[in-house]
Amino acid sequence: MDAVVCTVRARAGCRLPCWNRDSPRCVEYEGVKDLAEAAASVGVPKFVLVSAAGVTTTCGGEFCLNIFHGRALHWKLLGEEALRRSYKHGGLRDLSYYIIRPGRLSNNLGGLLGCSFEQGDQGRGSITRIDVAAIVVACIDGHCIPNVTFEAFNNKNKLAPAEDLNKFYFLDPDEPVAEGAEITSRLLP
């Protein structure tokens, strides 16, 4: 197996106690953590996680949505950290991860607008699902530096998204996760 692509999303809504297998905690954190650990343990060389823009936001619209949807963004961020720990830098094997934080997903036709890539979880915008899929494939095909977290949005440029993929090479890799570092919900941007 060359890569694992994880695009899980918990369902919103209230749950009865003990019936929470599809809760944000179980899906966005525990599920991602278990999948990343399993993939790393058998040496799957690449792991691509589609997360969400705004996971580090503590105010604004994302914060309100986070509160009303079972703290989904909080659990997504912890899932990202679990992936980083499983695929930590400098391991015995050549393992790489890619964490894509798309903006609001749209069902519009993809490939018509350009793409912009940011880091630091400050940007806002939307992106088509088709363009996110193209970004995932580009990561698997080696068109992006390894061990990186970035946000992706559509912009108004008429460049084809494939031309924008050259911007991948200007992204900064994540800082290595320190051994024994405490898990926080604000470890990286």
From TrEMBL:
Annotated SUPFAM superfamilies: NAD(P)-binding Rossmann-fold domains
Protein name according to UniProt: NAD(P)-binding domain-containing protein
Domain NAD(P)-binding: 2-141
Source organism superkingdom: Eukaryota
Transmembrane segment boundaries: none
PANTHER family: FLAVIN REDUCTASE-RELATED, NAD(P)-BINDING DOMAIN-CONTAINING PROTEIN
